[in-house]
Amino acid sequence: MKGRILVIAAVLGLAKADAAAIGVVAPSLQAHLHVSEAQLGFMASLAAVTGAIAALPAGTLTDRRHRVLVVTVALVGWSLALSLAGLAGGVVLLAVARVLSGGVATVARPVAVSLTGDVFEPAQRGRALAALDTGQAVGTAACFALGALAVHLLSWRWLFFWLAAIGLGLAVVTARLEEPVRRGPPGPALGEMLRALTLIRTNRIVLLADSVGNFFYAGAASFAVLFVSERYHLSNATVDALAPILAAGVILGILAGGRIGDRLTRTRGGQERVAVAAVCQLVATGLFAVALMSGSVVMAALFLFLGSTVLGGAGPCLDAVRIDIVPSGMRGRAEAARGLLLLGSGALGPATFGLVATAFGGRGAGLALRDAFLVMLGPLAAGALILFAAAGSYREDAVRAGDRSLPPGRPADILEA
C-alpha cells in the first residue's frame, strides 16, 4: 500500500517539475532564445491550455479503464514531449513541446486521487494525500535543483532531458503496480456526472476557491526565479539552488496539515479541514506580502519560508474534503473537472503576471515584478475567504456521497443510475 502511494506521489512530483520547468530556467531562456517576460508568461500558459482541453478525457480514462496502464502509457508520451523541449532551438519548437507535455501530464492527478479514495478510509486520507502533496513539493524542489545543475554545468536543455529520463524510469516502475479494486459502482455518463457535481454545494465552493488561488500560484511559479534574481542580484543557478529550502518548508506544512486535518476529522468532523485550509491560506498571504516588501534577501527568505510552510498545510485538507464529498465512481472525472478549472486559471495566471509586470515596466531592481506580485496576492486572499463558506455544507454533502438512500436528483442517486 505504501509503495503504491510513493510511486504515484513520484508521478505527481514529475507533473509539478514539468509545470515549473519554464520558470526555473527563465533567465537562461531569456538569454539564449531572446524572449520577453510576456512571451515567457504565454509560454508557461501553453501547457495549461492543452491540459485544460485534455482534462475530462483523462478523467474518463481514469474512471473507466485500468488506471495503472493509463498512467504508464502517459509517462512514456510525457517523456518524449520533455525530450522535444530539450531539443528546441527556438520558441516555436519549445511551444509545441509544452503543448504536448501539458496534455499528457493531465492524467496524473485524476489517477492519484482515484487510487487514494479506493485504498484509504476517510479518517486516513489526510495523511495519504499529504504524501501525494509532499511528492509534488519534492518534484518542484528537484526541478529547481536539477535546473541549477543544468544551468551551471551544462545548459538549460539538460533540465528537460533529465526530467524525460525520470519519466521513463517511472514508467518502468508503474507498469509493475497492482490495480486496486474499485470501492463503488461505475460512475454515470459525463453529462450526468457534471450535473451531479454542480449539485454538491461544498464542491462548488472549494472549486471556486481553488481556481482563484491557483491564478496566483501559476503566475508566481513562472516568475519567482526571475523576480528574486533581479531584486537581489543573484544568479539563476543560485536562486534555483535555494529553492529546495522553501520546498522543505512546504513539505513540513503539508505533513502537519494532513495530520491536523485527520485528527480534527476524528474528533470534530471533516468540516474542520475546510477551516484549517482557509486560515492557512490567509496567514500565508500576509507572510508573502511582508517578504515581497523586504529589501533584505535574508528577511525575504525567512518570510517566504514561513509563508510556504503555512500554505502547505492547506493542500491535504482540501484534497481530503474533495474525496469525501464526491461518490467513488466519479472521483477521476471530478478531479479532472477540477483540473480543467485550475488549468484554465493557471493559463491566465502567467500571462496576467507578465502583462502586469510589463505595465509596471521602467522600474529596475525587480520592482516591476514585485508590484505585480503584490497585486496578485489579492486572489490568494480572496480564495481563502471563499473557503469559509464551505464549512457549513460539508457534513451534509459528505453523508450524501456515501449514502445510497437519498432523495431523487441528489448526487448519489445519479451515480447509481
Structure description:
With 417 residues, the protein is mostly helical. It has one domain (2-416): Growth Hormone, Chain: A. 83% of the residues lie in helices and 0% in strands. It has helices spanning 2-24, 26-33, 37-64, 67-87, 91-105, 108-119, 125-153, 157-174, 190-199, 201-232, 236-268, 271-293, 297-312, 314-325, 331-359, 367-387, 394-402, 411-416. Helix 7 crosses helix 14, helix 11 packs across helix 14 (314-325) and helix 12 packs antiparallel against helix 13. It is globular and about 55 Å long. The two termini are 31 Å apart.
The chain-level mean pLDDT equals 79
Q: What structural class do the secondary elements suggest?
A: mainly alpha
SSE run = HHHHHHHHHHHHHHHHHH
Sheet with most strands: none
CATH architect. name: Up-down Bundle
As for the CATH topology, it is: Growth Hormone, Chain: A
Report the end-to-end length measured between terminal Cα atoms.
Answer: 31 Å
Compute the CA-based radius of gyration. 20 Å
Basic shape: globular
| DSSP helix fraction | over 70%
**Roughly what fraction of the amino acids lie in strands?**
under 5%
